[in-house]
Design a protein that fits this description.
4-stranded antiparallel β-sheet, 2 helices, 3-stranded antiparallel β-sheet, Immunoglobulin-like
Amino acid sequence: MKPGTAVAPARSALARRFDPFLEMPFNRLFEGLNLLTPFAEEFPLTKWTPACDIYETEKEIVVKAELPGIKKENVNVTIENNLLTIHGERKFEEETKKDNYHRVERSYGEFMRSFTLPVFVDPAKILAEFNEGILKLTLPKREEAKPKQIEVKVK
């Protein structure tokens, strides 16, 4: 037995039950429904996937991605054909040799998240902020998509 393997957590039956590769055939049942079309995402095929929150206000859509330990210059945000893509890399710390580690649980390497944007987002006005490992993208809505109050006149 290798040192340190006795304390490694065993993969439970519950964890195996929610394996995303096993869920894919089940998810295909719902492909035609497109319930989440404005924020649809293809299944990521990279080594790790940062967690993202997406929420909407009256004026904008906000995307927040957790990118701890990543430098701003290692993150790229692009929009092409109404597809928002966040791409980057978390590099392994080279000052410590891999042989000296007892456990490596954090993920390293390239990542990519892509989201299909709703047509009412104005791509020319998107703002990106990076603060304390959180990438915040503010996607303003076009004027015609914002709710408006219509006055009802009485005759």
